[in-house]
Amino acid sequence: MRCIAHAARDALRAGMVALLLSGWAAAATQGQPPPPVQLSDTQGPLDAQGLAGAWVDPRGTATLEQALQGGPSLFQPARAELIYSLGKDGALWLHYRLVRGRNDRNGWLMALPMPVLDFATVYQRDARGQWLSQTAGDMIAVAAWPEPGRYPHFRLDLPSGEVRDVYVRIKHLTPANFPVQLISESAYDQRIQIEYLGLGLTFGALMLLIATCLAQTLVYRDRVYAWYALYALVTMLGVTAYTGVAAHLIWPEFGALGDAPQACLAILAAAAALLFVRNLTGISARHPVIDEMAYWAGLAGIVLAAVYPVLDKPVGLMAVAAYLAATSLTNIWIATAGWRRGDIVGAWVLVAYSPFAMAIGMGVLRLFGWLPVSFGTQYAVVVATALQVPLLLVALNIRSRERHGAEIREQALSSQDALTGLLAPHLFHDRLRQVVARHKRDKENAAVVFIDLINYPRIKDYYGSAVAEQSLLRSVIKLRRLLRDVDTVSRIGEARFGLILEGVTSRIAVTDRAARLIAAGLMPLKGLKPDVTLQFHIAAVLLDERMSEAPELADALDGLLGGMSPRTRRPIRFLEPEVTQPAPMESDSSMLESDSGLPVPEGARVSAGISLSRIASRP
């Protein structure tokens, strides 16, 4: 039933419009004023494009008095969505006859929902019958408008039951139809709240994304997120200027540049998009010429935005249209090229930028008058931006993870052995120096062990490099099973491993692990083809037995392994402890002399030397 009621109401409204148009046509042919448009509190917003009489002043010099002298015969019935090409000097005059019901209380407004409209002047009589004019448009500061807002709107002075004439004079450079709406004050207040709610949600989401990107810049130390935040900020400012929000809320008193900020921000947003997509997709490796062209085109956009305010407006608008179209097509091409080569980032950029490019294309077509001004053609950019920015952030996150993964792998290659994943040799020797220094300072004991896979050269010569590398990996697995998590293990040679066993104080603990490693290497692995056993030679030292510098210990262990025969029956060996030499006898006898201050007899000197030698020889 509700659908039927809506259809009946729409049909009734269409019939009223047709009736008014026929009345306009009859009145125009007879030179009589058209019937007035009835306004009541129960009516919703009226699309008034086809309810007016229209007259185009090609020179734009006509005054209100001349329009009044022309009378009804000067104005012809306007056609809805007719695109007028006024040019730089022309002006469009619209004539409305309005009447408000006698018992109606709501006031009415005339709104022109076109934020980029250059000038709109409304003429209406006051209570004394004098004509008053009010002007608004994006060529003057919003603070100077009679009713500040995103787009021009004017309050109508319509006494109840009295027919009033309202004239509208419009000047606009580019071809366009000019939407005019008659709306009650209460309905306008509700609609403007809904509009700002939608725009506020969009801009709030963009601000949240910008804040998130800045936080990720600080957390991950990645400047790419900072550049994306800058790009999103410029894009958001461009959309705010395009929708009239910036002129209404950000710079309401600034009108020195007229409507130039809209075009400047649009150019900057296009240049930022081109530079960002170029960097995100990484086309420099495969298409260096295109990459260079995109880079210079982005810089050219910044220059064009700076010089736009001083250009002649028709020339500047043509440059803006050409630049926006060129950057949109370039971004689509770059994203498509990335997607075709299997790059997931290119696919995300293509999905994100396609609606935005279509919206930009609609805007360019509307700029040339090839599309009418409507809600869809005006706010497609807002919807496309709301979709584009989060999708591009997804693409950025994917690319960032790839870059961080590459950096992590690069760092791992510098700190780990590429084949076994063990600690790199230089880090092992650094760790060894730290352990030796801590032992000297705090007497914390540790064992240092070098292990050679002694049959590695024979395996490599007989079975090849693949089996030899497999034997190294098997050796690492067997080592891991015998070590604690706190033990340090490294591959310090082609087939040599180094261990640092902290807290080990006896040779028995080292020998036990070494023996189990040798036994595990000699046990064949089930199902392994070829059946290769692993033979290990092991050299070790306890720091409390032999205290030397780290390089000397490494050289001594290397020499001990080098001196072992391949067929030795003692594959586990330790460096011998350092031997403490007894002090010389002369110093002891001299001490005896110095203590008494008297000469010592020869027999006493000899007997004292014998006694000291016996003490030194005791275990």
Description:
This protein is an alpha+beta fold. It folds into four domains: 2-179, Immunoglobulin-like; 197-413, Rhopdopsin 7-helix transmembrane proteins, CATH 1.20.1070; 425-574, Reverse transcriptase/Diguanylate cyclase domain (Alpha-Beta Plaits, 2-Layer Sandwich), CATH 3.30.70; 585-617. The protein has 17 helices and 16 strands. The chain has helices spanning 2-30, 64-70, 185-220, 223-243, 245-250, 260-281, 288-307, 313-340, 344-367, 375-415, 425-442, 456-463, 465-482, 507-522, 550-562, 585-596, 602-617, and strands at residues 37-39, 46-47, 53-57, 76-77, 91-100, 108-111, 119-125, 131-136, 153-156, 164-171, 181-184, 446-453, 488-491, 496-502, 536-542, 572-574. Strands 1, 3, 4, 5, 7, 8 and 10 form a seven-stranded mixed β-sheet that branches. A five-stranded mixed β-sheet has the order 13-14-12-15-16, sandwiched between helices. The chain has a four-stranded antiparallel β-sheet with strand order 2-11-6-9. Helix 6 (260-281) packs antiparallel against helix 7 and helix 6 packs parallel to helix 8.
What is shown here, in short?
By secondary structure, the chain is of the alpha+beta class. The protein contains 17 helices and 16 strands. It folds into four domains: 2-179, Sandwich (Immunoglobulin-like); 197-413, Rhopdopsin 7-helix transmembrane proteins, CATH 1.20.1070; 425-574, Reverse transcriptase/Diguanylate cyclase domain (Alpha-Beta Plaits, 2-Layer Sandwich); 585-617.
Provide key terms for this protein:
alpha+beta, Immunoglobulin-like, Rhopdopsin 7-helix transmembrane proteins, Alpha-Beta Plaits, 4 domains, 7-stranded mixed β-sheet, 5-stranded mixed β-sheet, 17 helices, disordered N terminus
